[in-house]
Quinate 5-dehydrogenase (Ammonifex degensii), 299 residues
Amino acid sequence: MKKVVSVSLGSSRRDHTAEVELLGERFLISRKGTDGSLERAISLLKELDGKVDAIGLGGIDVYLVAGGKKYPVRDGLKLLRAVKHTPVCDGSGLKHTLEREAVKYLFREGIMYPGQKVLLVSAVDRFGMAEALVEEGARVCFGDLIFALGIPIPLYSLRTVAFLAHFILPVVGILPFQWIYPTGKKQEAPKPKYERFFAWGEVIAGDFHYIRRYLPPRLEGKIILTNTTTVEDEALLRERGARMLVTTTPVIEGRSFGTNVLEAVFLAILGKRWEEARPEEYLELIRRLNLTPTVRVLN
């Protein structure tokens, strides 16, 4: 049996373990949160190194992407470099392949439609999703300045996102990651904010921790397009009136694991390191596994 572990800067309350069979192989998949502690994450990574088949880095990016350029995140690189032997990834390879394909599927199936208003809470950590939404004709508000930096200025063009990223991301990348992303206990209790932007969007898309952190009291009729959710997250969205929850990764034992977990599984299947894996190999595995978004009607 292959073992895949996600080491996350997120809350340990979201930890989960599941066993699943993929392409004839058994996988033991687990997620271990370190409650925002970079030091604990590094220690755990060193402990796992060489003892599991692949590792995913959760709750953090190694690189942010905009306009075809990659911008390193210092804390993400620290985690990546702590692992010397086991293949390790942050999920970005699947964000550029699986999530792009997921958006195309939703438009093809009529779940989403051209002209629909979409609030994407951050484009630079999901540039594949961002590009696919624009290509399919959605009206997208990019919330990168709003949700990561607390600057309530919406962006409506990927060109603008890429232009600002050129100046901002080199600085953002050297900041402690907790300053720009909800980690640890910040992932637990929503604190409503930026309600006018949530109200504008018919679809609220992107990283669930940003969405949950600032979740407004009511979400009547909204589609939530995201990735990692738990049974509790689903209940919260239902309680607040969201119409539909769409997750881009498969649901395993009641929850969807992050892209970092699924990409680590892909590396274990391929027997390759992260830098060796190619997008076309990911797309072939997506096809063989028949991976499509999980769609759940909530209200």
